From TrEMBL:
The keyword Cell membrane does not apply. It holds the Pfam family Ribosomal_L9_C. Keywords: Coiled coil, Ribonucleoprotein, Ribosomal protein, RNA-binding, rRNA-binding. InterPro entries: Ribosomal_bL9, Ribosomal_bL9/RNase_H1_N, Ribosomal_bL9_bac/chp, Ribosomal_bL9_C, Ribosomal_bL9_C_sf, Ribosomal_bL9_N, Ribosomal_bL9_N_sf. Residues 55-82 form the Ribosomal protein L9 domain. Belongs to the bacterial ribosomal protein bL9 family. GO terms for molecular function: rRNA binding; structural constituent of ribosome. One of its GO terms (cellular component) is ribonucleoprotein complex. This is Large ribosomal subunit protein bL9c. Residues 86-113 form a coiled coil. One of its GO terms (biological process) is translation. It comes from Turnera subulata.
Length: 204
């Protein structure tokens, strides 16, 4: 009896059945590199004293945080600005402005008093004609104001022209940077004795 021949099945791969590579979508992402400088942290401060290349006492400036933390703060040279401090500073500025106005108004009233005053008397030796001996100085004016008006005035703010004879003169009293008492005076001399005369400085 003859045995039937058996042939093992075989798999054949043709080009039509071969696996093809799948095309995947390109999902690459572009990256942009930016060089960023380090941000400098600043602090707003008020200087308690003059500091070279930084500012003057009482000035509000911006400085680096490290400079304030490591130098200004430990040395007590500056104070950090806060909302509470700003509010306090504004109140102080208002107080100072009010005081400036008060001082100026007082100076204006005092100037009016000086310029409306009647006469001052100074004794000096008499010379020939209209001449007098001895100078009329700012100290004379200060002493007269003290004696007749009970007002203390610094002689440094009084300007008196050189007076050698009778005539009309101006004496200036700088009561305030914006207020100067400028009174026109007429000097008269009447002989009371052989040695002295009584001189009047009068408003005209």
């Amino acid at each position: 009896m003859a045995l039937a021949s058996t042939t093992a099945p075989t798999l054949s791969w043709s080009s039509s059945t071969s696996l093809q590579k799948s095309k995947l979508p390109d999902r690459r992402t572009a990256f942009v590199v930016i060089a960023q400088k380090k941000v400098k942290k600043l602090r707003k401060i008020i200087l308690k004293e003059d500091i070279k290349h930084v500012g003057t006492k009482g000035e509000m400036v911006d400085v680096r945080a490290g400079f304030y933390r490591n130098f200004l703060l430990p040395m007590g040279k500056a104070q950090l600005v806060t909302p509470a401090l700003i509010k306090e500073m504004r109140k102080e500025e208002q107080r100072i402005e009010a005081e400036k106005r008060r001082v100026k108004e007082e100076a204006e009233q005092l100037a009016l008093l000086f310029e409306s005053f009647g006469a001052f008397k100074v004794k000096r030796k008499a010379g020939k004609g209209k001449t007098i001996f001895g100078k009329v100085t700012s100290k004379d004016v200060v002493d007269i104001i003290k004696a007749q008006l009970q007002r203390d005035v610094d002689r440094d703010i009084v300007s008196v022209p050189e007076i050698k004879e009778t005539g009309e003169y101006y004496a200036e009293i700088k009561l305030h940077p914006e207020v100067t008492a400028r009174a026109r005076r007429r000097a008269k001399c009447n002989t009371k004795s052989h040695d002295f005369v009584s001189c009047k400085a009068m408003n005209v």
